[in-house]
Amino acid sequence: MKIYLYFEGEKIIQTSGIGRAMKHQMAALTSAGIDFSIEPCEDYDILHINTVGPSSYGMIKKARKLGKKVIYHAHSTEEDFRNSFVLSNQIAPLFKKHLVSLYSKADYIITPTPYSKKLLEGYGITLPIAALSNGIDLKRFEPDAGKIRAFRNYFSLMPEDKVVISVGLYFDRKGILDFVEVAKRLPQYQFIWFGYTPLYSIPKHIRQVITHDHPSNVLFPGYIKGDMIEGAYAGADCFFFPSKEETEGIVVLEGLAARQNIVLRDIGVFEPWMKSAVNCYKGRNVDEFCELVQGVVEKTLPDVSEAGHQTAQERSIEAVGQGLKKIYEEVLAK
């Protein structure tokens, strides 16, 4: 059995969740002993396609001519396309039609969560759909004193400084405006938003907040990877992720793997695997976010990081590898 993993525009997606999903899939297949290629080839059994750009249809068409099976990994939905780039809301209905057209050309669909599976079924897609996490590299995010020290030194943080972080693109959908509003109300803490999106591609009101209209206790250092971001996950006092829509949220898995206490928005994608006051804390508005973030930072709320780490373990790269192997075997058997 050989799998052709296809990701269109690798350089464009490398800083996104789909880019991380690519690395996770490669690691998962390696852990499961499954032969795969990310380079163009014809000696494969299944095309496992992950992107929905202009070359995707051609790739599926070619696979069909070769008599290959096709699995579509549905990372994108209309819902998580909205409230992102300039004109995304106007384009969203057309984007949905595009997704349905592409996804329906597969033999089987994989999507990260039961929530995103339900959305796809609601689009009228009748193909078999499996919910399988994108997975997480547990070893990479295990707390490391050297990485934590490097993170705090880089931002000139004193031992007594309290830090709240988030990770994501500069999208309204990611909750960036609520992140800044919570920071305004909690000036005693340092807030850091990791991630980057070209400013020309986002709406003016978001661009204005990032460049000018945010309090002095908020930093936007851009996209940072490696030891620094791993140290940030483990070395912060709270990971606050107020996203309004996700298909999974790989950064949440990263925070869980780092044994961090996490504050989330109470949205459908986190049901049923994230439970408030069990492995995270969930809020619905700025008032609740402020209360929860403060409770986590000041440790007046119970520490739920170990239960969170257990949730990450259930979604390890190795577990995902076995899940993919089972799906591949099922598709080939048909």
From TrEMBL:
Keywords: Glycosyltransferase, Transferase. Its EC number is 2.4.-.-. GO terms for molecular function: glycosyltransferase activity. It is an enzyme of class 2 (transferase). It comes from the Bacteria. Residues 159-298 form the Glycosyl transferase family domain. Residues 42-140 form the Glycosyltransferase subfamily 4-like N-terminal domain. InterPro entries: Glyco_trans_1 (IPR001296), Glyco_trans_4-like_N (IPR028098), Glycosyltransferase_grp1 (IPR050194). The keyword Magnesium does not apply. The keyword Transferase applies. Pfam families: Glyco_transf_4, Glycos_transf_1. This is Glycosyltransferase. It comes from Massilicoli timonensis.
